[in-house]
Amino acid sequence: MIKLIAFDLYGTLMTIRTDESLNSAWQTLAAFMGYYGAKYNADELKKRYYQLESVEKEKLKIKYGSDLGEINVGNIYTQLYKEKQINVDTNQVEITAKVFRAASTQNISHLYNGVENMLKKLKNNGIKIALLSNAQRLYTQPELKQTGIDTLFDKIFISSDYEVKKPSHLFFGKLIEWANTINIAPSEIMMIGNSPYDDINPAINIGLKTCFIHSELTENFDKKPKADIILDSPNMKELCERVLEYIKL
Fold this sequence. Notes:
With 249 residues, this protein is of the alpha/beta class. The protein has nine helices and eight strands.
């Protein structure tokens, strides 16, 4: 019996295209930060950002012994301001993150057709809904709100909040711990995602049921994962029907 479904976000429920290498994105960010006294040119800002990012990643690699640590970009934006002797609060950091995300987004995020109805139908059938996403909360929370599905999840897990990301068992462990507080066992959880490496294989390894969705954001793979349900496209109507059929087995 499936009592809880954990969804990946990008490539599973939502599509988006970003390119943080765009010169225009760094020019926009430099101009915005300059309004508040943190004067950088675009090249200087880009170089310093990646230097700070590298330092943060190395700290997490030492702490967790792997490359599966997840930085929080808010710390980087804060440091960039401080290096220009500008103190900023969390609100200003959030706005800065939104500016860069908007400037580096090529295709505005949008839900696949039928996502909202699918989530509501699953909830109406008594299933708890969670989000388990490798993402930065400063970028993802506004996008969830923009699409209107932020209130449909019973629990949201975003990797930047926990310093680790999928496929780490530590991140999946956060989901398991929460499920335990509402009396749901791992065998009663299904992970739905578009990545064999990040979503499906690690979920199988810890005893979860799985549903694999092949989407345009799925990375190349040699063979399909051994998921309980496999969809060749992000068809939300089919997904809902297949999941509800599986639950009745």
